[in-house]
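Dear colleague,

Following up on Tuesday's group meeting, I ran the structure prediction for the two-component complex that the binding team flagged. I've pasted the input sequences exactly as they went in, so you can double-check that nothing got truncated or mislabelled along the way. The structure tokens for the whole assembly follow below. Feel free to forward this to whoever is handling the docking comparison.

Inputs:
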Amino acid sequence: MSDILHRIATRTTSADGVYEALTTIDGLAGWWTKDTTGKTGIGDVIEFRFPPGGFSLKVLELVPGELVRWEVVEGPEEWVGTTVNWKLEQSGDYTVVLFEHLGWKEPVEFMYHCSTKWASYLLSLKSLVETGTGAPSPHDVMISDWH
Amino acid sequence: MSDILHRIATRTTSADGVYEALTTIDGLAGWWTKDTTGKTGIGDVIEFRFPPGGFSLKVLELVPGELVRWEVVEGPEEWVGTTVNWKLEQSGDYTVVLFEHLGWKEPVEFMYHCSTKWASYLLSLKSLVETGTGAPSPHDVMISDWH
């Protein structure tokens, strides 16, 4: 099993802004992909779509201001069954975000790509929360020939 | 053991530019940290310094246009003994860069941070090779309270 791990922090005095950006359709559409639909409660499925395809994620756990957990229920074969965890912690003037995409069966080249791409989306999330403007797909940063 | 994996591609018709940016002091100073000193041949040690500290890396292997391998010989405890691999492959109009920072003993929070920070430096490398201008320390992208 291989994992993708990241850490960012937003300059915000409470974790509410990050939590909202992870748990509402408008928030998610503001940093990951504009084409986000579905419902965001526990047990609901959120559909994230991109020009080349997309992912559907089931919400497993929600702890306001602290934790968001998703399971991938549809998408590329390598993604299905993996889980995504967001752990939030307020530290002074910063909201620290620990990100985990766990359970990749093999460290395939697509995982290398997703690791870098997640980092760029995390910086989009940081920008959204700090400035009101993120860089969601299709306005995301192009990192390679795979977009 | 835990690993950091990333993939980017530069829009370049040969891998020479990326290879040069990884194997010369001027190249390395153009995307990672301006405070880069030392020698860059096999067996040499390159010193990378940042405002809060730095790393010294020994060059293990060099295959022009294909591979660069380093071992961390000095720096934060979690880094010492880990290895960094750069695998380059030309694919049409793109040079694909597979990056591996292998052998972290534990997936500590500092590793989460370094994973995201590496992604941002890889985008700095891409920018340097494509446009001539990167974002090396101290002009690097601030991703968190840990810089």
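Chain B touches chain A at residues 2-9, 91-94, 96, 98-99, 107, 109, 111-113, 115-116, 119-120, 122-123, 126, 141, 143-146 (CB under 8 Å).

Cheers,
M.
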